[in-house]
Amino acid sequence: MGTNNHLNKDMARFGPGTVDPAGPDGVKLTLVRDYSAAPADVWAMFTDPAKTQMWWCRVRGQARTGSSFDLKWLNVKDEGHGIESDWWNGRVLAAEAPQLLELSNAMHGTIRVELAPNDDGGTRLVFTNTLAVPDEVVPMSLAGWHVHLDHLQEALDGKSVDWQHWWDDFYPCWEKVHAGYAAGPQSGGGAGK
Q1: pTM
Q2: Confidence label for 73 from pLDDT (cuts 50, 70 and 90)
Q3: What domains sit in the chain, N to C, each tagged with a CATH number?
Q4: What is the DSSP letter of 88?
Q5: Rounded to whole angstroms, how far apart are CA atoms 182 and 193?
């Protein structure tokens, strides 16, 4: 067993994402989350490399429109061990701190992060990923983003994922979330609740 025991493994605390068509060959995945942290704090979790690797990936680049913004996943499995992926090159299409970050990425298409204050003084995140993938990959992508955005809640509470043990600790969570999406991801006007 890994060292992620202090992190939440109830991936049902946030509602499911949705899938909508996007162009002739693409889909738009949308996940909506409400976090108690302020938009500037959530923005930092997407743009500060020291914070992104707490919950998402390693980042190389700056959150400025036109800048490179490369991603390296930290939970890739190889021969039973967690390893890092290769760098997936990307570029910042739009950066308006702390409301909007839009990225293009060689592996993940277009990633858009919209942040707005919610009624409780926290942040509403609307996360979209527009990409062209085979139908069988859509539930995998939704499950991946679902789990990463759950990890974001933990990171906002100061807790970091131990990536070397992610497969032991969180792959069963991912499998459960994936099974739910594989059974029939919702289409839905871009709002997962």
Answers
A1: 0.88
A2: confident
A3: 18-182 (3.30.530.20)
A4: B
A5: 18
